[in-house]
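Cross-check.
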Amino acid sequence: MEVVATELIFVIQIHLKSCAMKKSNLFRLTTLALMSLSFLSCKQDPNRNLKSADSINEGKSILIESNVQKKEWEKFQITLDSTINANDIRIAEFKLKAKQGKKEIDSTTRYHINVLEEKNQIIKSKLNTFTNKTTKDWNNFKTEINQDLKDFEFSIKQFDTDK
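Predicted model, tokenized:
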């Protein structure tokens, strides 16, 4: 491709030296040479297919790894969804117990319930916004969520003992 372009330029130079060209012919010939160069430079890289094959193989290994993670993620997500729903039910039960026989919930109880609701909402939003990019991200996410669940359980135990 580069050889053809070089030969074309060489032919133009010889033609210019051998005959006296008019300016209009020189302009046309130069334009033709530049157009030829631009068309030649548009050809694909012969190594492109090799690069694509490497990308495909790498993609397959990531896909296999991601399929394993996907199954683990689905199981984790189902478990976490049910835990979040159970936490919502527990919070609703606390609200009912706190309000029984009263017009309003006292400020300390309301504060504890709000803390529980906030912690549960944080866990829910983390679950909904997580994007599984790498194994390291996945492992960090699991560790973080498990710690959040432990904190939630601790808050519930603290709320029960404060009552």
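The first helix runs from residue 2 to 18. Helices lie at 2-18, 23-41, 48-99, 107-129, 135-162. Passed to J.P. for a second look.
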